[in-house]
Specification:
Helices cover about 45% and strands about 25% of the residues. It has about 475 residues and is α/β, with parallel strands linked by helices. The chain folds into four domains: about 5-145, Response regulator (Rossmann fold, 3-Layer(aba) Sandwich), CATH 3.40.50; about 155-255, PAS domain (Beta-Lactamase, 2-Layer Sandwich), CATH 3.30.450; about 260-335; about 335-474, Histidine kinase-like ATPase, C-terminal domain (Heat Shock Protein 90, 2-Layer Sandwich). It has a five-stranded parallel beta sheet, sandwiched between helices. A hairpin with a 3-residue loop joins β18 and β19 (about 465-470). The longest helix is centred in the middle third of the chain and has 43 residues, at about 260-300. The relative contact order is 0.05.
Amino acid sequence: MDGTTKKAILIVEDDESHRELARRAFIAQADTYEIALAATLGEAYARIDEVLPALVITDMVLPDGRGVDILGHAQAGTFPLVVMTSFGDENMAVSALKAGALDYVVKSLETLQDLPHNVERTLREWDNITKRREAEEGLRQSERRFHAVFDQAFQLSWLVDADGVVVAANRQAIDFADAAERTVLGTALWAGPWWSDEPDSERVLRSSLRLAAEGGQLCAVVRSRRADGSMRTMELSFKPLADDPERVPLVLVEGRDETERRRAEAAVEASLLEKDILLREIHHRVKNNLQVIESLLRLQAESLAGEAAQTLYENSVARIRAMSHIHELLYQSEDFALVDFPNYLRILADDLLAACGGCERRIDLRIESANATLTIDQALPCGLVVNEILSNALKHAFPSRDRGLVTLKFADLGDGSLELEIRDDGKGLPPGVALGKPEHIGLYLASVLAEQLGGSATLADEGGVRFTLRFKKA
């Protein structure tokens, strides 16, 4: 014995001499087979439950029934049945084979002695049958799982062969067209009830299926018709199902009704365009209104007397222009939420230089700016700060000089902070001048605006005035 489990063979025979001959035939295979015996159908049932045989050999006619009735036992599917008949009973053996017996033996001395070979052959055949059944059951389960997923898929789905013929269509596809399944299977996909009559529909479907059958994956959009006659926009994907690199027997086509999504996108785009136009118009009107205010102030200034009143007018106009430039830039921009701050600085600085007579006095204005955009909520106060500090430098830093240097730097510090620095090489700060004092309106306004930005401002006298504003970028 090599430790291999022996296979139980049940012999059911009411003739004692035949039963003994059959038993003796397996003596030489005692290491392979364990023989169990029964004389009646009832004994056979009991022995089956007891030994769980690998094979049952039975006489066709038993005292209490037919041997083929063993196929009605609950365990019958776990073993093959070989029927023994007498001479002249071949018809009975054929009926047993039709009933489910795997083989039959015509009883004789020679055939009974040859039973081990018959059993070996039958067990090999039974093993092949079992494997085939398992494979078939596995295939059926796989098909059931596939169809469960196929039918429950949200999108419309078709299985199409290499010629474009519909092999399967899921429930969504059938319901979409309100068609009977039998009327769509076996027809070309492009000839089905799902599509519009437009020539492009058939052309797109044919060309897409041809490319997919060659191994390509692609998407296409076609016009589709629902069962109620309404036209829809269908987005289709074509996926080759290849069983080897050289052959694509099937193509999976999946469709999604994109009509409502595309309508919603079109509505959103139209709404955004409308809002863009509205925002552009708002910025344009704000800019125009600021220019009207400036013009009104200019008319009023003609009746003003005294240097103080004139200075007040000029400062007010400068602040209005600082705000107006931002709205002008936003009106011209594609992005109404962000201001190109370096560009704004150059426009504002040039405007102030011209207004303060810096060009005639040969004041050199240098601008160094990082590329950065600011929201309008930060650009407006920051621009007003530049207006106050830069105009002060241009007006007061060089009272007795024809030349001077003013540097304006705007830097991104890399930690989410921005820094604005305005420096001149002029005479420096007069005694008692500091940020935050209401009597110095420009500097006071700069400190208030710095707080509005959530930042900090410093003012220093370092061979000229240096103003620094630091704040977090929004």
